[in-house]
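Honest question from a wet-lab person: if I give you the sequences of every part of a complex, can you actually get the arrangement of the whole thing, not just the pieces? Trying it with mine:
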Amino acid sequence: MTFRELFKYTAAGRVLMIPYRFGRIALPYALRQLGLMARWAFTSKEYYNHSYHLTELNRRYLASFVSVVSGHSLAEIEKYLRELETDEALRSALVERTRASRDRHNCDEEPRFGRRLGWYALVRATKPRIVVETGVDRGLGTVAIAAALRRNTDEGAPGLVFATDIVPECGHLITADCKPCCRILLGDSVQSLQQFKEPVDLFLHDSDHRPEYEWAEFLAIEPRLHAGSLVLSDNSQQSPKLLEFAQRTGRSFLFFADVPQAHWWQGDGIGVAFLPGVRTCFQEGRRK
Ligand SMILES: C[S@@+](CC[C@H](N)C(=O)[O-])C[C@H]1O[C@@H](n2cnc3c(N)ncnc32)[C@H](O)[C@@H]1O
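Yes, you can. This is the full assembly:
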């Protein structure tokens, strides 16, 4: 019997392989994670709502995901991703706002949109009149959505984002340029949604991530949705509630999983409930 056969085909070999499997195969992954954690602890100031860039491959998959969900071409979606990534005026305004904020000791200056690039591209492609986002926090997502609405407005397809949060100081990143496209609804978001009276083209859950709370938000906004409304969740990596809501409302469900670039955090993602095979544009014919 050769060594290879001993290790591969015998019970003794299976036991002898344990130190090798642990030390040479599994442990390097843990050490890489530890290295990323140590670097993050010293170089980042964030301790929640982690922000990160996506890997290049993951970003390409995000473009394809948004293309499938919106029914718009991959080339068009790629153009929108680049539009946000290369918006130097917005980037420097965000850096300035972070520097001037009381939160500067727990926020990183560099805006890292990650999956919010996908929110931006989806809003650019589908031209919603009304977006509702629950959970503002610093406002990185709100500003990405509002920046897309601002460009849509400039092109003749106006839109507003209504963003809810329970913390009055939320949204320090929302720039002066984006404020005209943005309304903050302060208070418990389920209550805000219950009082909301406008038809909603695009809804995004990103507030209290307990599954029962996420579900309560979906039920609260359901009367304001129409057949083509897009429903997104920032919680689908850990909760099946949007999948269940998609089934309840006759929509299909897809999930895009973030792969963070050089970060120890596993990443979040985008859950979406939508009608497949439909090219969604909420304001067709209104573009300049
Ligand atoms: C994950 S953060 C939002 C992240 C943000 N959308 C972004 O893109 O960075 C969650 C936010 O939800 C808010 N929140 C928690 N419970 C809430 C509630 N019951 N009603 C409204 N907002 C709530 C928190 O104050 C926090 O700012």
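Two things worth pointing out. The chain has two domains: 3-39, 52-274. The mean pLDDT is 97.
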